Amino acid sequence: MKNKYGIDIWGDDNFFIEDGVVKVDYSCSPSLISIVKDIRKQGFKGPLLLRFPHITKKQIKTLFNAFNASMKEYDYKGKFNAVFPLKVNQLPNFIHPLVSAGKKYGYGLEAGSKAELIIAMTYNNLGSPITVNGFKDKEMIHLCFIAKSMGHDITVIIEGLNELEMIVEVLKETNMEAPNVGLRVRLHSGGSGVWAKSGGIDSKFGLTSTEILEAFELMQDNNLEDLLTMIHFHIGSAMNTIKPLKKALRESGHIYAELKNLGAKKLSSINIGGGLSVEYSAYEQSRFYSLNEFASDVVFTLKEIARQKGVEEPNIFTESGRFISAASTVLIAPVLELFSAEYELSHLKLKGVNPPLIQELHDLFRDMTKKKAYEFMHDSIDHLESLLTLFDLGYIDLQDRSNAEILTHQIIKKAISLLQVDDYEELRKFDKNIQEKYLLNFSLFQSLPDYWGINQEFPIMPITHLDKKPTRSASLWDITCDSDGEIPFDMQKPLYLHDVNLNKEDYFLGFFNVGAYQDTLGMKHNLFSHPTEVNVVFKDDEVILEKLLESQKVIDILDDIDYDTEEIQSILSKRLPLETYEILKKYLNDNSYLKTIWSYYDDE
Ligand SMILES: *Cc1c(COP(=O)(O)O)cnc(C)c1O
Questions:
Q1: Is the Cβ atom of 192 under 6 angstroms away from ligand 1?
Q2: Is residue 324 assigned to a domain?
């Protein structure tokens, strides 16, 4: 791994390391630390979420270019279309730039709930497609009719026959023009990867082959067969291999062709859903296909089926969300404390006469040489074990115990610096005992919910110090009072960080690829709200920080969970002297994250 934290594996040329810092590989190539400094200067000292709309734009362009190139290569007659699934990131500061970057491609939006549909109806570029998935009631179907009446090119994807019946009802009741209809098929082939369960015969969604035939009959009975334009499937998020996609394509391709041959004249598109993966691993590649392979497999497979069944080649729709959004957002968490900082040598208070094991620890510390480093480190850890037992039995006192802990930590530190850890493999043997714990000013529940919920790995890297060798095997703690708010050291995927003195220097960790799903999945555990966020945009080679959105105020968080904030303020103001209440009011109007009192960069 060395110092690069796998950036060559997951970085996709969005960032690079130069002069020991992470820089944005775009325009004037600012360093992340310079952006962080700028924002902190304005008083925002907690965690930061940096959004880079140019990366979203690049992903949209890359997706369209890959498919259009494949279509050209295979002389494919259908057209490529794509929509962004809003569930992956609905926030306005992400969506507005996405919609404007997508305009020239006709890039549309996908909605899976009423609220998402309202976003799509309001902001989607007219002429770009809207698709609507998920379970629907009559109101939601009616909303689709209303969107259609606004001039949107909208397709309702039917998840069950009852939804089709609702369309017939709304049509009769309102006399409005109906939206297009798509059928979501329940594939017998499943996906791969962690989220594979959205595909397959047991999946929550889609119509069985019997239901598809029934649906088409129902449409014919109501003279609505011309509404049917799309076949849809979604085999689950983050496919790590392409094989299940090929199976799903063959399956849905044949369904498309069969329906065409049954008389579905306007059926013209296959929507392959999402699932296009991004690389999250900092250790070894975990996605085993390129976008170009993905595109060319889709185009080639559908072309073959169309030829075999003698039907026209379908337009291709994708609903890739993760691929479009993940890389665009970086979470920056300030390190508040290194656990071992409490074990500074200056706190050591040896007695005139010490217990023999403590004396021995002291000698190990004093006499350590590079050659003896491993051995002494090991010995010290054994000694500490014994001393802690002696403490529990009442044979040594609290001062002795404190001295033992300080000496052991100092021995470990000295050993690591003597060894200069060229050989991380060797050091790993000791990792269990000598990890450093880094306390970070962020909430894992709020900012990395997929780590908490499904152990999703995210690339992590300090944004400075990259010209120095990281020497501490690291566990990360967040500031929630929940012991699950931790990213423990993992022997298989070891994270090494720098041994920093936070009284002299700042240290920030970047969590990358957090733009997909994390924003609205994040939860307010312990009442920590979203980090302060900003869009980092570039104009004439200059960095401009746009749409700064401060982390929520304490009083607003309380309001969100339905406290009567008037009452809170009135009770507190009655019980406190005016001057104290004035101070308290300031705290109520500030966010929950911790503030470091002093910061190296802020003084510059
Ligand atoms: C979630 C979802 C997507 C997006 O999947 P990604 O893996 O993020 O690309 C696309 N289509 C449907 C129907 C979905 O439910």
A1: no
A2: no
CATH number of 369's domain:
1.20.58.930
pLDDT at position 494 is: 87
Q: How far is the CA of 467 from the centre of ligand 1 (A)?
A: 39
- CATH, residue 505: 2.40.37.10
Of these residues, 393, 398, 454, 481, which one is catalytic? 481
Give me the pLDDT at residue 3, please: 60
Q: Which of 63, 89, 110, 203 to mutate to test the pocket of ligand 1 (most atoms within 8 A of CB)?
A: 110
Residue 209 to residue 187: CA distance in whole angstroms:
9
pLDDT of amino acid 332: 97
Instruction: Check if the beta carbon of residue 485 is closer than 8 Å to that of residue 445.
Output: yes
Domain identity same for 448 and 512: yes
Amino acid found at 72? K
Q: What is the pLDDT of residues 162-217, one digit of tens each?
A: 999 999 999 999 999 999 999 999 888 655 555 455 555 566 678 999 999 999 99
- 52-73 average pLDDT score: 98
Q: What is the per-residue pLDDT across 203-223, written as a single tens digit (0 to 9) for each?
A: 667 899 999 999 999 999 999
Axis crossing angle, helix 138-149 with helix 114-123, rounded to the nearest 10: 0
d(CA 136, CA 114): 9
276 lines ligand 1 (CB under 6 A): yes
Q: Are residues 548 and 561 in the same domain?
A: no
Q: Determine the Cα–Cα distance for residues 294 and 468; give it in Å rounded to an integer.
A: 39
Is residue 177 in some structural domain?
A: yes
Residue 595 has what pLDDT? 80
Whether residue 243 sits in one domain with residue 167: yes
Spell out the residues 6+ positions from residue 86 whose beta carbon is closer than 8 angstroms to its own.
95, 109, 110, 111, 112, 116, 119, 120
- Domain check: are 440 and 425 in the same one? no
Mapped onto helix, strand or coil, the DSSP state of residue 222 is coil
Name the phi and psi angles at 540, rounded to 5: 50, 50
pTM metric for this prediction: 0.92
For residue 382, CA distances in Å to 340, 377, 386, 427, 436 come to 18, 9, 6, 17, 18
Number of neighbours of residue 151 by Cβ within 10 angstroms: 9
158 domain residue, yes or no: yes
User: Can you tell me whether residue 71 is helix, strand or coil?
Assistant: helix
Q: Check whether residue 152 and residue 299 sit in a common domain.
A: yes
pLDDT > 70 fraction of the chain, expressed in percent and rounded:
93
* Residue bearing the CA closest to ligand 1, atom 11: 273
Q: What is the CA radius of gyration of the chain?
A: 29
Same domain, 395 and 455: no
Quote the domain boundaries for residue 495.
7-52+330-340+435-552
The answer to whether residue 28 is catalytic is no
263 and 393 housed in the same domain: no
Residues 32 and 164 occupy one common structural domain: no
Amino acid at 391: F
Q: Could you give the number of structural domains in the chain?
A: 4
Distance CA 458, CA 279 (A): 9
- What CATH number does residue 73 fall under? 3.20.20.10
Q: Which has the closest alpha carbon to 530: 442, 406, 469?
A: 442
Express the helix, strand and coil content of the chain in percent, nearest 5 each. Answer: 45, 15, 40
Instruction: Tell whether 2 is covered by a domain.
Output: no
